[in-house]
Structure formats: structure tokens, C-alpha cells
Amino acid sequence: MSDTLALTFRQYRLERRLFWRNPSAAFFNLGLPLLFLIAFGVIFHGNEKELHVIVPGIAGMSVMSGTFVALGHNMVALREQGVLKRMRGTPLPSGAYLGGLALNAVANTVIQILFVLIAGRLLFGIDSIKDVPELVVFLVLGVACFSALGVAFAHVIPNSESAPAYINAVFLPVILVSGVFYDSADAPSFIKDIAQILPLTHLIDGLTGALVKGTTLGDNAGHLAVVAVWTVFGTFFAIRGFTWESRRS
Asked: If DSSP codes are grouped into helix, strand and coil, which group holds residue 46?
């Protein structure tokens, strides 16, 4: 077990170095949510109500982009380039390799969240983190949920060239419907009905409770349950559909 953990950490360190060697990927993963926050923060400057919506919304979007989007792209690219198949044939344990990939995505998500919280406090005066345990629980479950969904969704993407189209076809509508940039309670009823099905809506509601409202986990047990159900769903299909082989003939 200790050897596997050590190998996982070494693979994680390698993935971090590879990540920083790709400036465009680093910007998209780390800088884009911060730019969204700054842009909307400037637009709603002085409007505390709207800023209390934007900060948790961007934080939730950061979780989805750092895990679902990143892992969806990476797993398809690694599979279709034959990297997964080659890694399967090396002495490196499969769990250590996949664990390193997952930890890299988690690290990017944590950095994004820290950027959002610090920027929200310094630039817009949002007194963030009303309930630390609730924040941690929702972030951990949110990362697990969207990581599993990202890997599961990668199974339906046929090749690397189509991956951006497939992923954006899910990512963009979800962030628009789920209340990232506005209070979902103010949306038309049919939009609210769709949003209540999606895990991002409930993650944002949980983060809003932890960052703005100061509610407890008990108050947001329903939101936690929905995210947990999506986590189980994503994990099941991530495992069931996983393959080391490229789909190209």
C-alpha cells in the first residue's frame, strides 16, 4: 500500500510538471474562472446581492471545469493516443497512474477555488466562508461527483478531435442553467425545473450556504443528497465503461 501511494504521488508530481509546461491549458484551467469573477464583479460592483450569487456560482463552475472538463479531455486524449494502453503494460500500478491524474485535477480545482475566494474577498469585499465544515464537505463531494462524471462522459466521446464539442455541449448549457451567473430562483419555471435535476445547481446552493448564508449541513441535506446520487451514478458508469484501448481501428 505504501509503495502504491508513493508511486501515486510521483505520478502526481509528473502530471503537475506536464501541466505547467502547457501555458494555454494552465490559463484555461486556472485563469478563466478568475476572469469571469472579475468581469462580473466589475459589472455588479456595489450590488452585494448579486455578488453573493456570483462568488459561489464561479466557485461551483471552477469545480466542474477543473474536474469534469479537464478529466473528460484528458481521458479521451490519453486513450486515443494509446497512452493508456502503453501505461497498462508498464510495471506502474494502474491505480497509481489513474490516481496521479485524478490528484492533478483535484489540485487544479483547489487552486481555482482559492483564487475565487481570495479575489471575492479582496476585490469585492465578500466576507467568505461562514461555515468551514460545510464548505469542505460540499467541495470534496463536488470534486468526487464531477470527476466521476467526467471520466464516465469520456467513454461516449469517440475521438480527441470531437472532445471539445462534446464537452462544451454539456458544460456550457449546465453552467447557464444552474445559476452560475444569476440567482436560479429568478429563472423561468421550466429552467428551474431543469436546474433542480443537475448536480451543479445543488453544489452551488451548498456553497452559497457555506460562503454567504451561514447555513449548516443539516439545512442543505437535500442538496448534499442530490450531489451524492450523481456521484454514485457517475462512479458506476466511469468504472463500467472504462477501457485502456483506443477506439481507432
From this structure: coil
Long-range contacts of 70-74 (CB under 8 A, 24+ apart): 70/29, 70/105, 70/108, 70/150, 71/101, 71/102, 71/105, 71/147, 71/150, 71/151, 71/154, 72/150, 72/151, 72/153, 72/154, 72/157, 72/163, 72/166, 72/167, 73/163, 73/164, 73/167, 74/101, 74/105
246: which 3 cell numbers? 483506443
Q: Give how far Cα 105 sits from Cα of 17, 19, 22, 135, 156, Å.
A: 13, 10, 14, 19, 20
CB-based contact 199:178 (threshold 8 Å): no
Helix axes 32-43, 94-124, angle to 10 degrees: 20
The pLDDT tens digits along the chain (249 residues) read 677 889 999 999 998 888 888 777 677 777 778 788 788 777 777 676 777 788 888 989 999 988 999 899 999 999 998 888 888 888 888 888 999 999 988 898 888 888 888 887 777 766 667 888 898 999 999 999 999 999 999 999 999 899 999 999 999 999 999 888 887 777 788 888 898 999 999 999 999 888 888 788 888 899 999 999 999 999 999 999 888 888 764
Strands, E assignment, 73-183: none
pTM, to two decimals: 0.89
| C-alpha closest to that of 212 among 145, 140, 109, 138 | 138
In the chain, domain spans = 2-240
Indicate the Cα dihedral angle 184, 186, 190, 192, nearest 10°: 30
Residue 175 to residue 58: CA distance in whole angstroms: 9
C-alpha span between 81 and 49 (Å, rounded): 47
